[in-house]
Design brief:
Largest sheet: 5 strands, mixed
Number of domains: 2
Number of strands: 10
Strand content: 15-25%
Distance between the termini: 31 Å
Shape: elongated
């Protein structure tokens, strides 16, 4: 699942256990991934699609497809969705393609069949179920409560913060260190500024990744997603 992320603003220290999906054309897919505890990025550099790393080290690629315009660098209206599976060093294997003339063309831009396909693939790759992720979230929140954090809502999102009366920097560091140690002891990833904890520099480690293979090699070896209706929209006005 997404690492528990600590942040500070003035005297306020907040812990977020959930990643909020962006409100855009990817929302149905990113919401599913967040609910399954899968981290992801949205690649706007070589074409608009989601790049999600799975626990077994493989990758899920998914996104909209567009009708081609004659003018290079531009695309027509969306006419389908795609999903592919990629192992490091391998070639993408199609899971779903609903463009006209392709395997799932009858579904067009409907996201329901796409999400069902992705959900089944995540099951096959051993990704935790939504129920398992919810149980882990509840456990992470209970550990934050045990360390002194209290639930709150920011911009409509449930998160946790230290009590307003806890103003002293040393007191805040003790509480954050306690919470981070509780979380790490039970296998949760932790993303925390070093000045919020009492960890020595050598103990302040980055958040636990979902898998070990370096993302750089995956990106360098990944086929360019262009042509065939797949968007190449890095220069498209937004």
């Amino acid at each position: 699942m997404h690492p528990v992320t600590f942040s500070k603003s003035g005297f306020e220290v907040t812990a977020h256990t959930r990643r909020t999906p962006p409100n855009n054309e990817f929302t149905p897919i990113t919401t599913l991934l967040v609910n399954r505890g899968v981290d992801y990025t949205i690649d706007f550099e070589t074409g608009d699609y989601i790049d999600a790393q799975l626990p077994d080290g493989s990758f899920l690629l998914a996104g909209p497809q567009y009708a081609d315009y004659q003018e290079p660098g531009w695309t027509g209206p969306q006419n389908g969705w795609f999903a592919e599976w990629l192992e490091v060093g391998g070639e993408p294997k199609p899971l779903y393609d609903s463009q006209p003339g392709h395997l799932h063309h009858e579904h067009g831009t409907d996201t329901g069949p796409l999400l069902a396909c992705i959900d089944e693939h995540l099951d096959r790759r051993g990704v935790p179920s939504e129920q398992e992720v919810r149980e882990r979230l509840v456990r992470a929140e209970s550990l934050l409560h045990r360390a002194g954090f209290v639930p709150t809502i920011q911009n409509g999102v449930v998160c946790h913060r230290l009590p307003a009366a806890m103003l002293g920097p040393a007191e805040r560091r003790v509480a954050v260190t306690r919470a981070a140690d509780y979380l790490r002891a039970e296998g949760f990833g932790v993303n925390c500024p070093t000045d919020l904890t009492d960890w020595a520099a050598e103990r302040a480690t980055p958040p636990v990744p979902l898998a070990d293979p370096p993302r750089q090699g995956h990106r360098e070896g990944r086929p360019h997603r262009g042509g065939g209706g797949r968007a190449q929209r890095a220069d498209r006005p937004r």
